[in-house]
């Protein structure tokens, strides 16, 4: 019952946040020099042609009018039409969504077990060799930015050794049809989240394994493995769940650097393209999508955390 | 069953236990008695082959069979995120596997060698039948153990989380977990601490019963009532050394060591019969009747509170003038702590108001001003959980004065040390982290922390639980002195002895309603705040009101 009211409250707050984000993004695109008419007019813009294009694209009204128009359209379920490609924005997203979603799903599927296993393995004997190796590696790896890792991995495994394709060009929308193109992007996407989440799991596990209930479970004759996975771990993962939400959000937003380096035709690429072309309907639709993802994923994580910590009575 | 020879424990140059030797045959109950910090818990844990970090043990400890352990704080050994039933079944399955494996080995004759205790499930050809059998055995083991521990059946309990049980139920749950493994030795560390008389009696009787069935029971306690009831032998400890060791009757009747005599002399007053507080007749007199004596410092009107949707207390009203003490008794799970938490702003009541000097207090703590926070202070039942494990105790205690009274760090520190010292906690002890202090020591530190806020209303949840008799008397004396200086005290307790000693009025919370314990106990306060100690004797209807504890107090004042 408490949960129910909490979800409703959070969802309505989330809705307000989404509207605010799109308004902010719209204001920022307004502040950018030039607009879609200038982009379409090409290299030698003739003022008369630009004005005509503006009129055709509906860029003549005031900013407030155009934003409200877009918002009303969204409420009717109409995301508008791309100014550059002339196609409906919904089709645009349906095309660039799947590659990003596939990358994110595969990354998450590998991330959760690996990060949890790494964190638990390090926590079993904190300060010993295995912990030092895992902790040292994860701190070092975390310090490497995505773009650097992407370029280095691409240079070594694709260009020098030729084991893997350097980019996803030619794979089209369905990356799963050609799994080899996924390997390098997924590796890059995994690198930093695996470090942060395994560190959090390790910290939680060290506390949980040192707790009275873990000691008591061992006293009651339960196997160390059971104690580790069934008794300590549920207490240890709460902070990691929150971090995982942030990671999921980040992945579903289409990681721009990774998509750019490996030429993945995903949401991140779509966003950079749309900003360059001042394609406002596409930018707004993507902002809407990313904001909605953020709100949903974080709400889910909070519900999961609440379930994992039954003592935190009342979620408000 | 147990043989301990020259057991010594030291930590950082401090000797915790110095050369303790004893043996305990099956079927006997040994009580280890001594003030907090005298090494009882260290000895108990040594029987489990455990020790606190930094403690070095030497000497020999021999124990036959498995050891079941009842720790001092049941909440600390129950996994907060696992449901009760799941954990019980898991322990039972483990126990059942070893049992059925041993059974299989027994019936298969001597020709086949089986590793005893090897899980059946590891032999694939037996898996399905074995697993089913294991599950059946486990289910019945759980039912039996819950029954033995006087808990309701799995149907009612299994889906709950430990925090949804009362302190008494948690203790019995830990006992049920231990019984699942059919132990031959039970080490019980203050098992009756903070339990209501009925539960206490149940646990005590149960431990005796287990001893009669052939288990050796080691009982670490302060409570001479329990010792008197079930102990066969008593070992009195002082500063980690054995002061006296002998048959229970002899030690209690003719204590030879002055230390034992001091502990016995400080026993709280003999308790009126509180076998079942529910059967006490309720009277028509309402708790909301105006207190006869001055304005109310604290007033509660029509308070109703729920946990989720389950009602816990309903329509509770009470009035508490400055300089008075109200004790609220009741069984575990009857909502005493919930009432206290509502007053302190830790639990949002469904209805009703809490007034401080006639002004309503916000139901949520975060909405109360800092002054209001300082004025209503709370000493929690679980002292361990109420301290940050990573910072020295003294630093945490003095923080109250900095935060709630705006003192400088230096001044707050001096005040804290003085108060802690007064409560019998020297600076060397409180400079350590909470983990290094005993339960009784932490409880006093928690009291000091609350008092440093200079509160007008002090809520004490089981303040004397886990304290030895001498310390208990000194804590009660301090509270009494503060009460006479105008502190309004709300005492949550199971302990009738404590209630009659300190309280002006005693209420019983039963079935969610607060009722006067007894018309003649609910006497009008016989003393204004400035009244002398001689006026403080309680006129209860029972004949046992003039108890030894009262004399002790007069001596000290």
TrEMBL record, chain A:
<dbReference type="GO" id="GO:0005886">
    <property type="term" value="C:plasma membrane"/>
</dbReference>
<feature type="transmembrane region" description="Helical">
    <location>
        <begin position="103"/>
        <end position="127"/>
    </location>
</feature>
<dbReference type="InterPro" id="IPR035906">
    <property type="entry name" value="MetI-like_sf"/>
</dbReference>
<dbReference type="Pfam" id="PF19300">
    <property type="entry name" value="BPD_transp_1_N"/>
</dbReference>
<keyword id="KW-1133">Transmembrane helix</keyword>
<feature type="transmembrane region" description="Helical">
    <location>
        <begin position="250"/>
        <end position="276"/>
    </location>
</feature>
<dbReference type="InterPro" id="IPR045621">
    <property type="entry name" value="BPD_transp_1_N"/>
</dbReference>
<feature type="transmembrane region" description="Helical">
    <location>
        <begin position="175"/>
        <end position="195"/>
    </location>
</feature>
<keyword id="KW-0813">Transport</keyword>
<keyword id="KW-0812">Transmembrane</keyword>
<protein>
    <submittedName>
        <fullName>ABC transporter</fullName>
    </submittedName>
</protein>
<keyword id="KW-0472">Membrane</keyword>
<dbReference type="GO" id="GO:0055085">
    <property type="term" value="P:transmembrane transport"/>
</dbReference>
<dbReference type="InterPro" id="IPR000515">
    <property type="entry name" value="MetI-like"/>
</dbReference>
<comment type="similarity">
    <text>Belongs to the binding-protein-dependent transport system permease family.</text>
</comment>
<keyword id="KW-1003">Cell membrane</keyword>
<dbReference type="Pfam" id="PF00528">
    <property type="entry name" value="BPD_transp_1"/>
</dbReference>
<feature type="transmembrane region" description="Helical">
    <location>
        <begin position="282"/>
        <end position="301"/>
    </location>
</feature>
<feature type="domain" description="ABC transmembrane type-1">
    <location>
        <begin position="97"/>
        <end position="301"/>
    </location>
</feature>
<feature type="transmembrane region" description="Helical">
    <location>
        <begin position="139"/>
        <end position="163"/>
    </location>
</feature>
Automatic annotation (TrEMBL), chain B:
<feature type="region of interest" description="Disordered">
    <location>
        <begin position="511"/>
        <end position="557"/>
    </location>
</feature>
<feature type="region of interest" description="Disordered">
    <location>
        <begin position="98"/>
        <end position="122"/>
    </location>
</feature>
<feature type="region of interest" description="Disordered">
    <location>
        <begin position="266"/>
        <end position="293"/>
    </location>
</feature>
<dbReference type="GO" id="GO:0055085">
    <property type="term" value="P:transmembrane transport"/>
</dbReference>
<dbReference type="InterPro" id="IPR017871">
    <property type="entry name" value="ABC_transporter-like_CS"/>
</dbReference>
<dbReference type="InterPro" id="IPR003439">
    <property type="entry name" value="ABC_transporter-like_ATP-bd"/>
</dbReference>
<dbReference type="InterPro" id="IPR050319">
    <property type="entry name" value="ABC_transp_ATP-bind"/>
</dbReference>
<protein>
    <submittedName>
        <fullName>ABC transporter ATP-binding protein</fullName>
    </submittedName>
</protein>
<comment type="similarity">
    <text>Belongs to the ABC transporter superfamily.</text>
</comment>
<dbReference type="GO" id="GO:0016887">
    <property type="term" value="F:ATP hydrolysis activity"/>
</dbReference>
<feature type="domain" description="ABC transporter">
    <location>
        <begin position="2"/>
        <end position="264"/>
    </location>
</feature>
<dbReference type="Pfam" id="PF00005">
    <property type="entry name" value="ABC_tran"/>
</dbReference>
<keyword id="KW-0813">Transport</keyword>
<feature type="compositionally biased region" description="Low complexity">
    <location>
        <begin position="98"/>
        <end position="107"/>
    </location>
</feature>
<dbReference type="InterPro" id="IPR003593">
    <property type="entry name" value="AAA+_ATPase"/>
</dbReference>
<feature type="domain" description="ABC transporter">
    <location>
        <begin position="298"/>
        <end position="536"/>
    </location>
</feature>
<keyword id="KW-0067">ATP-binding</keyword>
<keyword id="KW-0547">Nucleotide-binding</keyword>
<dbReference type="GO" id="GO:0005524">
    <property type="term" value="F:ATP binding"/>
</dbReference>
<dbReference type="InterPro" id="IPR027417">
    <property type="entry name" value="P-loop_NTPase"/>
</dbReference>
């Amino acid at each position: 019952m408490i949960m129910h009211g909490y979800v409703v409250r959070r969802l309505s707050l989330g809705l307000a946040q989404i509207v605010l984000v799109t308004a902010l993004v719209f204001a920022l695109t307004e502040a950018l020099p030039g607009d879609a008419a200038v982009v379409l007019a090409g290299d030698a813009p003739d003022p008369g042609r630009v004005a005509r294009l503006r009129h055709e694209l509906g860029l003549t009204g005031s900013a407030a009018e155009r934003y409200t128009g877009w918002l009303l359209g969204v409420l009717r379920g109409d995301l508008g039409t791309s100014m550059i490609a002339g196609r409906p924005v919904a089709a645009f997203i349906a095309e660039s969504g799947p590659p990003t979603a596939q990358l994110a799903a595969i990354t998450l599927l590998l991330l959760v077990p690996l990060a949890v296993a790494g964190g638990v393995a390090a926590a079993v004997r904190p300060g010993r060799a295995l912990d030092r190796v895992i902790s040292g590696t994860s701190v070092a790896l975390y310090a490497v930015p995505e773009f650097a890792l992407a370029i280095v991995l691409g240079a070594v495994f694709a260009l020098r050794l030729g084991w893997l394709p350097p980019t996803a060009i030619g794979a089209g929308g369905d990356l799963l049809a050609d799994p080899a193109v996924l390997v390098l992007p997924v590796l890059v996407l995994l690198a930093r989240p695996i470090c942060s989440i395994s560190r959090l799991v390790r910290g939680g596990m060290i506390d949980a394994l040192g707790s009275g209930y873990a000691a008591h479970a061992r006293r009651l004759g339960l196997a160390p493995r059971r104690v580790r996975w069934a008794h300590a771990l549920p207490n240890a993962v709460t902070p990691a769940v929150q971090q995982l939400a942030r990671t999921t959000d980040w992945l579903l937003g289409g990681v721009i650097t990774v998509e750019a380096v490996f030429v993945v035709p995903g949401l991140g690429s779509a966003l950079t393209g749309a900003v360059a072309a001042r394609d406002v309907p596409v930018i707004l639709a993507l902002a809407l999508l990313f904001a909605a993802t953020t709100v949903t994923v974080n709400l889910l994580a909070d519900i999961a955390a609440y379930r994992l910590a039954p003592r935190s009575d009342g979620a408000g | 069953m147990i043989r301990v020879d020259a057991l010594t424990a030291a930590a950082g140059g401090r000797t915790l236990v110095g050369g303790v030797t004893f043996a305990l045959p099956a079927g006997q109950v040994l009580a280890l008695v001594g003030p907090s910090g005298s090494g009882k818990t260290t000895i108990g844990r040594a029987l489990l082959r455990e020790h606190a970090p930094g403690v070095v043990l030497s000497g020999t400890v021999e124990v036959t069979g498995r050891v079941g352990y009842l720790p001092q704080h049941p909440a600390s050994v129950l996994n907060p995120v696992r449901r009760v039933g799941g954990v019980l079944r898991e322990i039972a399955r483990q126990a059942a596997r070893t049992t059925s494996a041993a059974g299989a080995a027994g019936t298969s004759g001597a020709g086949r060698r089986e590793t005893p205790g090897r899980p059946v499930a590891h032999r694939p050809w037996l898996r399905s039948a074995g697993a089913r059998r294991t599950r059946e055995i486990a289910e019945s083991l759980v039912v039996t153990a819950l029954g033995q521990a006087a808990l309701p059946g799995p149907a009612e309990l299994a889906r709950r989380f430990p925090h949804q049980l009362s302190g008494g139920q948690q203790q019995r749950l830990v006992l049920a977990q231990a019984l699942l493994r059919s132990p031959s030795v039970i080490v019980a560390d203050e098992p009756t601490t903070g339990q209501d008389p009925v539960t206490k009696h149940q646990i005590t009787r149960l431990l005796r019963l287990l001893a009669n069935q052939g288990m050796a029971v080691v009982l670490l306690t302060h409570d001479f009532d329990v010792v008197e009831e079930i102990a066969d032998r008593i070992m009195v400890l002082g500063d980690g050394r054995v002061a006296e060791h002998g048959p229970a009757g002899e030690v209690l009747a003719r204590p030879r060591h002055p230390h034992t005599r001091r502990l016995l002399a400080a026993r709280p007053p003999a308790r009126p019969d509180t076998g079942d507080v529910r059967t006490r007749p309720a009277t028509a007199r309402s708790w909301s009747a105006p207190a006869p004596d001055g304005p109310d410092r604290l007033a509660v009107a029509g308070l109703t509170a729920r946990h989720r949707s389950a009602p816990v207390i309903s329509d509770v009203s009470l009035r508490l003038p400055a300089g008075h003490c109200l004790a609220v008794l009741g069984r575990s799970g009857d909502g005493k702590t919930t009432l206290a938490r509502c007053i302190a702003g830790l639990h949002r009541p469904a209805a009703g108001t809490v007034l401080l000097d006639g002004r309503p207090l916000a139901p949520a703590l975060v909405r109360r001003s800092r002054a209001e926070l300082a004025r209503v202070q709370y000493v929690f039942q679980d002292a361990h959980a109420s301290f940050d494990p990573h910072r020295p105790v003294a630093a945490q205690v003095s923080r109250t004065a900095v935060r709630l009274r705006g003192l400088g760090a230096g001044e707050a520190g001096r005040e804290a040390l003085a108060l802690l010292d007064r409560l019998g906690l020297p600076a060397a002890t409180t400079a350590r982290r909470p983990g290094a202090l005993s339960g009784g020591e932490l409880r006093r530190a928690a009291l000091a922390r609350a008092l440093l806020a200079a509160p007008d209303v002090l809520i004490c949840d089981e303040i004397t639980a886990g304290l030895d008799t001498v310390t208990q008397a000194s804590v009660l004396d301090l509270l009494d002195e503060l009460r006479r200086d105008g502190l309004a005290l709300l005492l949550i307790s199971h302990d009738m002895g404590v209630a009659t000693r300190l309280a002006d009025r005693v209420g019983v919370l039963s079935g969610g309603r607060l009722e006067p314990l007894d018309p003649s106990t609910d006497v009008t306060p016989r003393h204004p705040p400035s009244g002398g100690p001689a006026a403080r004797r309680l006129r209860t209807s029972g004949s046992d009101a003039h108890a030894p504890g009262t004399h002790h107090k007069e001596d000290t004042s």
